[in-house]
Write a structure and sequence with these properties.
Layout lengths: L1 E4 L11 E6 L4 E7 L7 E5 L9 H19 L3 E5 L12 H21 L2 E5 L1 H9 L6 H14 L7 H16 L7
Parallel strand pairs: 2-5, 5-6
Antiparallel strand pairs: 1-6, 2-3, 3-4
Helix pairs in contact: 1-2, 3-5, 4-5
């Protein structure tokens, strides 16, 4: 499910400059100058190792990095993968859940403060958009998503970047800007 925040009616009528994030222990990003064929910039933000255990400092560092990305690249919209997919087989710790929810909260806050449209995309839709299936075993997910990104022509360097491409494709598809042939 795509959750659109502050979406105006004119957005779906045209292409959108989008910064897509995979908010995880490392934040993969892809910047799109409108519709695909490919992102114009890919990368992964790593929190400084000195602040790894300090949530406040980590969220502040992410906030500063994200604000800098928005200032430099001037996206019209920000999108990120939902921090929780739920279900009985969710394999994570309380610390990771706290981190993921915090990063998503910072992303939404920054989008609101900077006047950007903000989209939250469910993880299953991210996998569907890039790999064609939402059911990828956890042990295979990184490999499958990277391979799917490469097959699509996206020169991703890691699974976080691949996931960010899936986030962008989901947003563009749900806005009716892609042919789902």
């Amino acid at each position: 499910m795509l959750i659109a925040r502050t979406l105006d009616k004119g957005l779906a009528a045209r292409s959108v400059r989008l910064l897509a994030l995979d908010t995880s222990t490392h934040v993969g990003f892809s910047l799109w100058d409108g519709l695909p064929p490919a992102p114009t910039k890919l990368g992964t933000w790593h929190a400084p190792s000195a602040i790894a255990g300090n949530y406040g400092r980590r969220f502040k560092a992410f906030h500063n990095w994200l604000c800098d990305m928005i200032t430099v690249h001037e996206p019209e919209a920000l999108a990120f993968e939902s921090p929780l997919t739920g279900g009985p087989h969710m394999n994570t710790t309380e610390d990771i859940l706290r981190l993921l929810i915090g990063l998503a909260s910072v992303a939404e806050l920054v989008a609101e403060l900077r006047g950007l449209r903000c989209f939250e995309v469910h993880g299953t839709k991210v996998k569907m958009a890039l790999a064609g299936t939402g059911r990828i075993p956890s042990k295979d997910k990184d490999r499958v998503m990277i391979a799917a990104a490469h097959e699509a022509g996206y020169l991703v360097g890691d699974s976080h970047q691949a996931d960010s491409c899936g986030v962008a494709l989901t947003v563009y598809s749900d806005l009716g800007l892609l042919d789902d042939a």
